[in-house]
Amino acid sequence: MLLFAGTPFAMNRIMIIRIIALLAIVLIFWLGTRKMKIVPGRFQSLVEMGLDFVRVNIAEDLLGKKDGRRFLPILTTMFFMILFFNLTGIIPVLNIAGTSVIGVPIVLAAVSYICFIYAGVRKHPAAFFRNALFPPGVPWFLYIIVAPIELVSTFILRPITLTLRLLMNMVVGHLLLVLFFSATSFFLFTAGGWWSLLSIGSLAFGFVFTLFEILVAVLQAYVFALLTGVYIQLALADEH
C-alpha cells in the first residue's frame, strides 16, 4: 500500500492511477463545458465531438432517439471511463491501465448487466424472462435444450465475456510493452557490446506497440459501450 496503509482507505498503485484518470476526466469535461459558446472554440469542439460520437454512433444508432437519450448517460460514462483508464497504460510513470486489474472490469460488466435486466423488465415486466428463456416460435419439446442454453448464454456468459474481453486485452498489451522496453534496457545497459544494436529493434517494436495500444484502448472503450447498447436493444425488442 502506498497511501493510508492500515486504514479502510488504503490505496495501492492501481487505485491511485484510477483516481488520477478519474480526476483527468472531470477536469477535461469541466474545462470543455464551463463556458459553452454557440460558436465553440477548439477545446469545446473536441469535447462535443467526443460526446456526439457516443450519442450518435452508440446510443441513438442502436436504441433510437427516445431510448438512446434514456441510456446515454450510462453509455457515455462507460465509454470515457474505460478510455481514460485504458490510456494510463501508455503514459510514462503511470505505465499500467486502470482496467488491467479485474475489479473495474467486473464492476463495469455488472453495471452493463443490470442495465440489460432493468431495460427488459421495465419494457416487458411480465414476459421478459419468459421470452428470454423460452423464445417464441420454438417447438415445445425443444425447450428442454433451448432454455438451458439461453440461460447460460444470456444471463451468465454475457457479464463474464464483457469482463474478460476488457481485462485480457489490457493485460496482454501491458505485458507486451513491458517485454519490449525491458528488452531494450537489457540490451543497452546490461548486455552491452554488439548486443546494444538489438536495443534499436526492441525500442522500435515498443514504440509501434505503444501506438497499437492506443488504438486498442479506444476500441475496447467503444466495443464495451457498444455491446452494452446491443444488450439493452435486445432487452427492449418487441419479441420480449
From TrEMBL:
Family recorded in the similarity comment: Belongs to the ATPase A chain family.
PANTHER family from the UniProt entry: ATP SYNTHASE SUBUNIT A
Major localization listed first in the record, in broad terms: membrane
Keyword ATP-binding belongs to the record: no
Gene designation: atpB
Molecular function terms from GO: proton-transporting ATP synthase activity, rotational mechanism
Function text: Key component of the proton channel; it plays a direct role in the translocation of protons across the membrane.
Membrane-crossing residue ranges in chain numbering: 12-32, 71-94, 100-119, 140-160, 166-191, 203-232
Protein name as catalogued: ATP synthase subunit a
Domain of life of the source: Bacteria
HAMAP family to which the protein is assigned, alphabetical: ATP_synth_a_bact
Bilayer topology annotation: Multi-pass membrane protein
Compartment annotation: Cell membrane; Membrane
Keywords: ATP synthesis, Cell membrane, CF(0), Hydrogen ion transport, Ion transport, Membrane, Transmembrane, Transmembrane helix, Transport
Single GO cellular component term: proton-transporting ATP synthase complex
